[in-house]
Structures are given as structure tokens and as C-alpha cells.
Please model this.
Amino acid sequence: MLDRATVDSLFPADLPETAEWEQRYPARDVPDGAFVTRFGPSPTGFVHVGGIYTAMVSRDLAHSSDGVYFLRIEDTDQAREVAGADAQFARAFDAFDLRPDEGPLSDTGGSAGDGPYAPYRQSQRSTIYLSFVRELMRQGKAYPDFATTDELAEISEAQRTLKLPTGYYGRWAPWRDAADEDVLARLEAGDPYVVRFRSPGAVGERVAFTDRLRGRVEAEDNHNDVVILKTSATEPRLPTYHFAHAVDDHLMRTSLVVRGDEWLSSVPTHLQLFAALGFDQVEYAHLAPLMKQEGSSRRKLSKRKDAEASVDFYLEAGYPADAVLAYLRGLANARLAELPVPEALATPLRLDEFQAAGPLVDTVKLADICADFIATMPGPEVLAGVRGWGQTYDPELVEVLDEQEPLALAAIDVERVGVENPRKDLARWSDFRAAYGFFFPMLFTDVTDPADERFGGLAPELVVALATDLAAHYVHEGDQPTWFQQIRDLAERHGFAPNPKTYKKDPDAYPGMLRDAANVVRVLVTGAQRSPDLYQVTRVLGADEVLRRIRAVAG
Model:
């Protein structure tokens, strides 16, 4: 074991003692039973929807207990850091209203004003970690390791040959109990080294702990001397995730760590680190992963395989954020799944209602929830949602909506206001063009080809005749039955059967049925074979625009 003077010489002379950090970051003033939670994203790729799920759970548990929810950027693995990841975090947190009580609040990456436990970015906390690494080395609980990459590979290969657990431990850890003179010689030579934790565990030992979602968990104890401080050949000296998380969760006074169950196997290591550092153990709640149905089986939602794994999938499509959050809350606690969105958002989550099995992400179900939610929104809120989405993803649409706001509001209200079952044709803001674009002359493409397949195979000359006749006799005024009667009369004048029963008796005697004639009018006016109530559509468009569209096919 190296003496204190030697250990201290490996660190900056002005490095604070650990007690100074304890004083700088005192216990939080929160009520008894309140949770202090954190979300710790790593900027090494796109934001997974599972991250939004975890952050949502963390925030809810903190806020419903009068606690604190903070954000900590875990960027110690800088070699894998992806440019733009911070901006994506900020975009996702804004969109889903998951902005933390403390922590980086924008994509600037700054720490000023983030909160009393700043900095909230691990790469800016390197001095803190060094203090605690030094303390472990002083106590002989950590040591310098000079093994090269090739030497580590040889150790692993030998272990595999002997069918032993791989890792750096016991007799397979040559620097664990190396003679002081050998260590000093390498230090004096300036050879690069990492610092490893001296694990108290042994191969085959078991450990038990309590998880707030899973109850008692028993697992193999950690026997590996994990790296806690990366190579001395780089500056700044940064810790590994295992060590940084232990120090930060203690000093930032986290009381409940909510994270994915892929970290469950790391708990034995973390328990050892907390004990070695003399910290009180935080509680853990490991969430089951979000799943996807694939054939008759389920698998984890994959970043590589599934578009819906990325938060950008939901932002670009324009799923209403409140509805997505309500859906995720229903995955967390099944009792919330059938509640209206506002009620699902307002009802606190319960730790004892999480399931051990991973919940299934079903975009069809999500779309149903979104459509139901949008159907309850007043027209101005729908328009605001479309505008907010369109400013990023469809600026041309926003320009049209700004120029034609009264028309947009009138279009949105068709079959939505004063009816028991309002239209549910919007599940995402990106659906707006397809569902409502035909209302806007600048977005509508006139139907000019009488042989267009949307006319259902009617003879082109008959399509032109129907359009010409209707334009010549069109009456815009009147109630719905009166208005539609002119369509009936038009169909009769051109020999269409008044109903399917009549048509089936002698199909060769008619060019089609009333609905075929009405379809011609619908396609000319809306561009589609299916649309909202045609009478209400014509009320919004006005007589001049209706006639212009009808005449377009006649040349």
C-alpha cells in the first residue's frame, strides 16, 4: 500500500479534502419521505423514448412527494459523445414538459444558474472526483494499475481458456498487491495508469438488496476491481460512470435512483463503492424496459431497429406531448391507461403498481389516445398545436394558417362542434395537411382529369357532364336536405339508380348509383373519396370556391 505522501503526490497540491465537498453540498431541506430524483442522460446518441419514460417517472415521484427532480449530464465517456445531443435533450425536455427543477436548462451546456448543487455536468466535476479517488487510495481501497491493453487481453484469453470468470481480480490482477517499489518505479518512469477499486468481493459470493419496484433481489456480488479513474495520459482525469454516479448521487443528495433494469447487474458494484466511500446507500428503482411486439414474441424497443424508439419520431410526427405522456403513464401504472389525458397527467404514479414485465409500446394504441385527446380540444388549441409543430417541420403550412386563420378554425370545427361523436381524424399534427389541407385553395390541387381513378371508373364524358350540369344549376343556399336534393336530382337526370337495391336489379341499365354521382361531386370539391360531411364542407368553402372546383374538370 502506497504511503499517504506518495498518493497525495499523484494529485494537484491544492485539491480540496472530501470534507470540503460535503460542506459545499449539504443535505437538502426537503420534507420527510420526499424523493430527490435525477435523470442522467449520456450525450452519446439520440434520446430514446425510454429516457423520456424514465425522466417522467423520476419527475413525478419527486414532485408528488414534494421533493426535487434534477438533470445531470453524464458525459464522462467523451470519446463516444455525439454532436448535437445536448440540443436534442433540450428539445425533448421542452416538448414533453420535463424541464428539471435543477440542472442544464438549455442547449448551451453552461452550468451557471443551474441550481445549488452545480455543476450538473460530470465533465465539469472532475476535481470533485479526484478528491474522493485520492481518499480511497489513501485508505488502500484503490490502487494504480499499469496493465496495458495487450496485457488485459492476455489475461482475458487465459481466463477463457481455463473457463474462469473474466475480469481483473485476485491473482488475475497483477497490480492489486504489487510491491510498493514496483509501483513507485512505474510512477517515476511516468508510465500511464488507471486507478482501480479494490473490490472486497470474491468469485461466487452472493449479495442481496432491495429494489423499490422489485423487492428483494439476489445477485452475484462484484469481484472485479473496476476502473474508477481513467488513464493518467489524458486531461482532465475523468472517472468511469460507476464511480461518478456514486459520488454525485451522494453529494447531490439523491434519495431514489430511477433507471432502466440494464443497470440492475451493476448494483453490487455500486453498493461496494457506496460502502467504501462511507456514504449512505441510495434507493434504487429499476424500470422494466419498453418492449415491442414482433410476431408472436416481444423484444426490447431497439435504437437500431425501431423508428419509434427515438424521441424525434414523436416530435417530427407531431404526437401531442400531453397525450404521449399520458400514454407512458398508463404503461407505468395500468390504472391510468383508460383515464382521460388530463386526469392521467394529474394522477400521481405509485411505485407499488409498476409491473416486473416490460410494457409494450403500441403506436396504434397511442394514435387512438391522441385522436381522442385532440377531438376534445377547442379549435384554437388544435390550431395552436399544428402551428407549434409546423414552425419546425412544415413552415409553409404555418404561413397558410396565419393567412387563413378564420378558414382554418371553421375547417377544424366541421363535425366537431355540437355533435356527440366529434371527428377523430387527427392523431398527430402532421396529419393536418391530409385531413384539412383541401379546405385551403393554396394547398388544394384541382381535379382536372375526368379519367382520374378517384371517380371510381365512371366514363370521363359522364364525369364532365355531371360537373357541367351541376355548375349550371348549383344552389348553395338551404339546409342540408335541401342542398343534397340537388345532388339527387343531378343523379336522376343522368340516369343513376337512386339506391343499391334498384341498381342490383338491373345494373346494366344504370351508369351507377346515387352514391357514385355524389362521389364525383365529393372528389371535385375535396379531392378525396372520403371526407367530412360534404354539406358542411361547402359551408366553409363558400359558393364561389365550390363552383370553381366543380368547373375545373370541364376545362
Q: What stands out?
A: The radius of gyration is 33 Å. Residues 106-112 have pLDDT under 50 and may be disordered. The longest strand covers residues 206-211.
